[in-house]
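Running this now, will post back.
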Amino acid sequence: MEEERMAEREAMAVEVGGAKMYADQTIVENASKADNLTTLVAAVQAAGLVETLNSDGPFTVFAPTNAAFDALPQGTVATLLKPENKEQLSGILTYHVVSGNVDAASLMNMIEQNGGTATLDTVNGGQLTASVVDGKVVITDAKGGKSTVIIADVKQSNGVVHAVDTVLMPA
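Update: finished.
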């Protein structure tokens, strides 16, 4: 029986950044194992959000990859990780988080039901706009920046993660 459960767990795991993401682990537990989410994990730690993202949730996280952080102007990440910028960093990170469990099917349905776009309220009080461009979900931030979902529906014990290729910026 235990072997069957473990086999099912393995079969349902999604690989992100060379690491398997298990649906029975939290967002932080899973992200900590992914080679392409190390900057996000460092930022979550610096912002003091580990406890929050380990809590029950559920949360939907649009998780910027390392490449997304690397695309920011030189020095931006290092500056944001400084203790004196904790509040600003927290604001940016929580702008990537939506309350609830919004999987890709739900998001696509919301986009269809709302005439081609869906507005998502983030936990920092801002809004993101989701649309479909060339068959891919694109998230637009308050400044007009666009981020494409590159890996969708990575189930977590406390929500779902969608990896994105650009860091989203609040107003």
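Residues 8 and 31 are 21 Å apart (CA to CA). More later if anyone needs it.
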